[in-house]
Amino acid sequence: MRTEAGKKPLVYPQPVLIIGTYNDDGSIDVMNAAWGSVGDDHQVFLCLSAGHRTTKNILKRKAFTVQIAEESTLVQSDYVGIVSGNKESRKFEISGLHAEKSEHVDAPILTDYAISMECELESYEPEHCHLFGNIIRTTVDDRVLTDGKVDFEKLRPITFDIERAQYITLGKVAGKAFSAGKELIKN
Ligand SMILES: Cc1cc2nc3c(=O)[nH]c(=O)nc-3n(C[C@H](O)[C@H](O)[C@H](O)COP(=O)(O)O)c2cc1C
């Protein structure tokens, strides 16, 4: 038996992406976005509602950063998803997060997160909230690297469970990609 779940987009795991932008006065805004993913080889896709301060900032500055939320930043990452910069001008300060200016795009790198992608706006379609950004530069804090590559057991990224409104830390390595299935290839 299978239970009907309507048309829910139960695509797991949903990443928890942390978006950094500059407000009109040069102060920083940060938001949590779980509707997002890879767009293309050098592109990210986000589904951002037009009313968010973040979306307005991106449309003005044509730039933003995308960070991957980590277990160690769960409280701050959730806070920036429940409070809007439209209403709380001290949002970034209250979050306790830290930032440095990107030298490549007009947006802040949020230094509490190990992975940061500095992006320029490619397109935004408000009706469906579809936003594409071109990645200009990606940086990774050495603290999450093993042999020069991102080590997810060090990064401990959190994912969003839409059904139970909770965050789940990505689990352990399950197998080798492009390899595990080979045992079913006969010739
Ligand atoms: C777990 C979680 C995921 C979210 N994902 C999205 C998303 O993908 N797109 C979106 O438009 N808003 C999303 N939100 C809501 C925004 O983060 C929230 O409205 C935030 O206050 C907007 O901040 P801003 O107005 O300062 O930009 C999410 C919130 C949470 C807690």
DSSP strand tally: 14
Give the bound compounds.
flavin mononucleotide
Number of domains: 1
| Fold-level CATH name | Pnp Oxidase, Chain A
Beta-strand residue fraction: 35-45%
Name the CATH architecture: Roll
Structural class: mainly beta
What is the subunit organization of this protein? single chain
Briefly, what CATH class?
Mainly Beta
Given as residue ranges, the uncertain stretches (5+ residues, pLDDT < 50) are: none
- Gyration radius from CA atoms, angstroms: 18 Å
Described by strand count, sense and barrel closure, the largest sheet is:
7 strands, antiparallel
Quickly list its features.
187 residues, mainly beta, binds flavin mononucleotide
Structural description of this entry:
- By secondary structure, the chain is mainly β.
- The chain has one domain: Electron Transport, Fmn-binding Protein, Chain A (Pnp Oxidase, Chain A).
- 14% of the residues lie in helices and 37% in strands.
- It contains four helices and 14 strands.
- It has helices at 53-61, 74-82, 91-95, 152-155; strands at residues 14-15, 17-22, 28-33, 36-40, 43-47, 63-68, 99-101, 108-110, 115-125, 130-140, 145-146, 149-150, 158-161, 166-169.
- The strands form four sheets. Strands 3-2-6-9-10-5-4 form a seven-stranded antiparallel beta sheet.
- A hairpin with a 5-residue loop joins β2 (17-22) and β3.
- The longest helix has 9 residues, at 53-61.
- It is globular.
- 30% of the residues are buried.
- The mean pLDDT is 97.
